[in-house]
Amino acid sequence: MFDDVAAAEWFAGARTASSERRRRAAEPSTEWPAFAPPVELAPGPLGRAQAAARETARQFAVQARAVAEFAATRPAAGDRAQGEPGAMSAARWAGRAEVLRPVSEWAAQELMIACSLSLQSAEALVERSLTLVQRLPGTLAALEAGALHPGHVFPLLEIVAPIGSDRVRGEVEAEVLRWAAGRVISPAQLADKARREATARDARATARRLAEAIKRRGVSLRPERTPGMATVTAVLTVPEARALYRALAAMADALDDPADPRGRGQKMADCLLDLVLRPGESGLVPVQVLLTVVASVQTLLGGDQPGEIDGQTVPAEMVRQLIRAVAERGVSAPLAVRPDPARPTQRTPVEPLPPASPAEDPVWQEIEQRELTAWWAETERRVLAGELIDALEPIPDEVLAAWAAEAGEEAVRADLALDEPADAVPGDDPPAGDPADRDPWDAHPANGDPPGPGWWAAADRALDDASQALLRAQRALAHASRTVRTAECADAADEAAWRAGPAGRVTAATSALAALHAAAESDRRWLAELLGATAGGGLADRPRIAVVDELTGALVALTDSRALRRLAHCGRPACRRRPERCAHDLTGRPGLGPPPPTDGHDPETGLDRFVRARDRRCRFPGCRRPVRELDHHTPWPVGATSAANLTGFCTGDHRGKHQAPGWAYTLTPDGTLTVTTPTGLVATTEPPPF
């Protein structure tokens, strides 16, 4: 059994009721909050700037609704259908957004002229407007109320709008908007929250997009605006990119030469060139890279809860693959999303089509131009050959007269058929072998016959052929519909089987204890071995266990498996009970909580690690930079060097706290930071929940 279960039960038993309250509060909901600006209007010119920004957001929403209404008046029914000469190329049609399919391709041209936009900008405006109106109505309402500004819209368009399920998309949007209500947040913070919610609630689609993105990993080159400069872009997974950046930064920092005029970024670029172009000749010192990985027990045991790598949200499977690679000393192996062993049939990434070469995938304008050129060439050939001229020549008067006579004869024949005696036997017509007995209704101009009633027979046969073709198409459509329904049933059964399995039960668990109880024995054993690993090898530090309040997600303590075992028994040297099963009186033993205060100005290692893990990013409202420095709220030595008096800041905001005149900062013991500007505006931030 998992040795730390008893210890975990000891310190988490009191949180059972709060866990249940948190579970009920976290149930999916599509209810929007009451939208209002996060701060009041300041006096003077700053207030006028705020009012202008809110009016800009409102007009952004007004424009979106108006463009969507205009697009509805330009249906695609009037455009040439796919396959017709002069229609939009198949490649461009396939790359068109789904919300644009019902809209005429020429609507963007009309909007382009009306608003003086480029064609690309006009198409993007139509797509964005339709997406907001049809897929993100809550975001549009928040814009109209001034709760969000246009910069907040784009992360939601990129992360939330693509979610295929209307229910899941509505839940994610509502949860993000509820979280953002009343907060001063930047678009990057909103994007991080949206990414976390979308990854947790739409794990299958996230895994599919990640698998497709991994296949697009690569390096690209583009020129810079400054002549003689260029940019090399490497698209990598988060662990690879973070490790590469940290390694280059460490190598650059090791080049400690006061006379070197290069900045840190320049040194990193030179280190990269030396490593790639002059391997073995650079003399760069080897470095060790430290990546901070945050993963819940549910994530490690196979659940869908996302994790963090250096503060960036990543899917659960990527976290598991990274930890497995480290545990197996396979850090250098390329990361890839593989099916979870606990879910053999679920979340299998869909293989995308291989990208075409540039020669096979020209831009859509070239494709359409080539198709139109071929169509005009074929039309010209037929005109010169007289095919189209013959077809377009006026119909002779005698032919028209014959057709009129034929129509009259058909009417007479229909009347005779109605008057036919009831005892008439069908099929008593003369045999067709004798030309004299030939039915005049079978004559047809295509057979060299003079115009006659056979023309109508041919039309009947053509109509019958068309009916048969329509019947076959209907059968094919019915077969396709049955195939889709079968796939949907199989998908629902697959999802139900996964939810009933260990990984599904772990994902549904409302606490770490419930996840441990639901997990497979092999997963619990693997987790125990991981938590028991010591420093050295591929790890820069032993894994830490973050003890989190189940109701608020706040960090309570940062410990490890050894410390848990020590705290779980009485500590008497003569005690021979297993630490995780000791039942002696534990009243005098220290409980779990933040590390004790440090006597000096600089926090000790444990306290420093705790505060950085609690804050993770700069605590200034709207800032997303990593924590660089820990600040004493009450200056030392008047204030203690303790978790209740320390806050994580980036370098710039740390300077601003001490140097910017008129600003006020208030810190509560639980880490809540309130910032008041010189004009009286108030913004509050809390440590990000786990």
From TrEMBL:
**Start and end of every DUF222 domain?**
87-326
Q: What is the protein's name according to its record?
A: DUF222 domain-containing protein
Q: Which domain of life is it from?
A: Bacteria
Question: InterPro entries, per this entry?
Answer: DUF222, HNH_nuc
Q: Where is this region: Disordered?
A: 16-38, 334-363, 421-458, 581-606
- Classification of source organism: Bacteria, Bacillati, Actinomycetota, Actinomycetes, Geodermatophilales
